[in-house]
């Protein structure tokens, strides 16, 4: 039985962290590597970097980011954002990333998932799904292009297909909850966890360790943390200790 | 660890896996990783590291294609410290049933079979406690139970239980670390296991420094 994972997520634009960070004692609050190193030492079980650089130089910025991270971070890390081909994925994996996350490009061409899984193994392929509940309730629409574009696909169906094609893990973001800090969408998580056997990373809505405990209870294997870390509300260490106190089976922070 | 500073460790690059993290982690512990695409590159190194991800048949085919199969067997018999990581540990064994039946290096007695995870998810991805079966130089300074990062669907089943250095649990108790004389293997990824993993890699460099063999081609 693997420990439940706590995974900080950083949005990176041209090598700099996008969202505001309020740690006073950081030399450079915009450096993703320095921040990630802090998360590693604080007990982060993995780290996710989403490269949101929106220029033609994208591929090289993602590779450069992976390379810089690999030099100083000794927990697994995932690079996502703009991966459009197995060749893109190869670049960041060669640079030291453990997994790649694909989203829009996989929706546009689902064979991208199987081509990557065949080449690198399913354990390297994270299918990121941005989902918003449909007005009818009980089903969720998949959005692409950073949440700007409706895909016409239902999220649970898409997750099933993605796993069938070889996705080894699902990074499932509730767009309804993202940034709200009111808790994860547990209905969405529950439906996804029941639909597939691969691990689900819950994302969107974390505001407290209680929210994370509820996500784990609902079937998530990991919980992504963004705004509550970046806003300086809390630290990975505090979160993990709180989860341990709540009886959640997370990796204790090494003495 | 100071005695192992600069110890040259040959990292076998058979082209199927990502060695960046492993070599960076070795550097971090003070040893000097030498990436080897052919046996000749390992000249002068004090130890061998055999990484690997992907399928067992692919791994063995890649080892064979790059000329490492016989080389590794010979060095292991010559008592050069050898550490297999993940698929690299599995390849130390006699055979694997992954995608048919494939012969391994046969340096350790036993077979590789699918993880019997029961109700747990496969692949087993994540941090799991490894319980050390006995003291070893490789695990010196680590807690009796140490969380290590695992990514695998198959497990090695040593023919000789004496070779088991550590076990972890994921639906079943499986062998997560092995040791027989100069041959070591870990199913987990020390290079991704934060401080505990770095410690283990530093210990391996220490073993190599103490044995003080130099690979001669």
From TrEMBL, chain A:
<protein>
    <recommendedName>
        <fullName>imidazole glycerol-phosphate synthase</fullName>
        <ecNumber>4.3.2.10</ecNumber>
    </recommendedName>
</protein>
<dbReference type="Pfam" id="PF00977">
    <property type="entry name" value="His_biosynth"/>
</dbReference>
<keyword id="KW-0368">Histidine biosynthesis</keyword>
<keyword id="KW-0028">Amino-acid biosynthesis</keyword>
<dbReference type="InterPro" id="IPR050064">
    <property type="entry name" value="IGPS_HisA/HisF"/>
</dbReference>
<dbReference type="InterPro" id="IPR004651">
    <property type="entry name" value="HisF"/>
</dbReference>
<dbReference type="GO" id="GO:0000105">
    <property type="term" value="P:L-histidine biosynthetic process"/>
</dbReference>
<dbReference type="InterPro" id="IPR011060">
    <property type="entry name" value="RibuloseP-bd_barrel"/>
</dbReference>
<comment type="pathway">
    <text>Amino-acid biosynthesis; L-histidine biosynthesis; L-histidine from 5-phospho-alpha-D-ribose 1-diphosphate: step 5/9.</text>
</comment>
<dbReference type="GO" id="GO:0000107">
    <property type="term" value="F:imidazoleglycerol-phosphate synthase activity"/>
</dbReference>
<dbReference type="InterPro" id="IPR013785">
    <property type="entry name" value="Aldolase_TIM"/>
</dbReference>
<dbReference type="InterPro" id="IPR006062">
    <property type="entry name" value="His_biosynth"/>
</dbReference>
<keyword id="KW-0456">Lyase</keyword>
<dbReference type="GO" id="GO:0016829">
    <property type="term" value="F:lyase activity"/>
</dbReference>
TrEMBL record, chain B:
<protein>
    <submittedName>
        <fullName>Unannotated protein</fullName>
    </submittedName>
</protein>
<dbReference type="InterPro" id="IPR010139">
    <property type="entry name" value="Imidazole-glycPsynth_HisH"/>
</dbReference>
<keyword id="KW-0378">Hydrolase</keyword>
<dbReference type="GO" id="GO:0004359">
    <property type="term" value="F:glutaminase activity"/>
</dbReference>
<dbReference type="InterPro" id="IPR029062">
    <property type="entry name" value="Class_I_gatase-like"/>
</dbReference>
<keyword id="KW-0456">Lyase</keyword>
<dbReference type="InterPro" id="IPR017926">
    <property type="entry name" value="GATASE"/>
</dbReference>
<dbReference type="GO" id="GO:0000105">
    <property type="term" value="P:L-histidine biosynthetic process"/>
</dbReference>
<feature type="domain" description="Glutamine amidotransferase">
    <location>
        <begin position="11"/>
        <end position="201"/>
    </location>
</feature>
<keyword id="KW-0315">Glutamine amidotransferase</keyword>
<keyword id="KW-0028">Amino-acid biosynthesis</keyword>
<keyword id="KW-0368">Histidine biosynthesis</keyword>
<dbReference type="GO" id="GO:0000107">
    <property type="term" value="F:imidazoleglycerol-phosphate synthase activity"/>
</dbReference>
<comment type="subunit">
    <text>Heterodimer of HisH and HisF.</text>
</comment>
<comment type="pathway">
    <text>Amino-acid biosynthesis; L-histidine biosynthesis; L-histidine from 5-phospho-alpha-D-ribose 1-diphosphate: step 5/9.</text>
</comment>
<dbReference type="GO" id="GO:0016829">
    <property type="term" value="F:lyase activity"/>
</dbReference>
<dbReference type="Pfam" id="PF00117">
    <property type="entry name" value="GATase"/>
</dbReference>
